[in-house]
């Protein structure tokens, strides 16, 4: 019985708190998602993320290129050391 009361009491409090929070007299409150500033801010954040992601991808590609160049140089050295076998 005590556990049942303990479980329902917090639910009642949250419902009361939510209904108190949703009451408003202004038509402008809650329209943040529709404002132009919100859209601009969101686009700016997306652009920053995209640039950072592209920067990471470029760094990975540069490292891969360096590895491949080192492998190529090593293969060329081996090829030159063998010399012609004819």
UniProtKB/TrEMBL annotation:
<feature type="compositionally biased region" description="Basic and acidic residues">
    <location>
        <begin position="37"/>
        <end position="49"/>
    </location>
</feature>
<comment type="function">
    <text>Inhibits the enzyme activity of ATPase.</text>
</comment>
<dbReference type="GO" id="GO:0042030">
    <property type="term" value="F:ATPase inhibitor activity"/>
</dbReference>
<dbReference type="GO" id="GO:0005739">
    <property type="term" value="C:mitochondrion"/>
</dbReference>
<keyword id="KW-0496">Mitochondrion</keyword>
<dbReference type="InterPro" id="IPR007648">
    <property type="entry name" value="ATPase_inhibitor_mt"/>
</dbReference>
<comment type="similarity">
    <text>Belongs to the ATPase inhibitor family.</text>
</comment>
<feature type="coiled-coil region">
    <location>
        <begin position="51"/>
        <end position="82"/>
    </location>
</feature>
<protein>
    <recommendedName>
        <fullName>ATPase inhibitor, mitochondrial</fullName>
    </recommendedName>
</protein>
<dbReference type="Pfam" id="PF04568">
    <property type="entry name" value="IATP"/>
</dbReference>
<feature type="compositionally biased region" description="Polar residues">
    <location>
        <begin position="22"/>
        <end position="34"/>
    </location>
</feature>
<feature type="region of interest" description="Disordered">
    <location>
        <begin position="22"/>
        <end position="49"/>
    </location>
</feature>
<keyword id="KW-0175">Coiled coil</keyword>
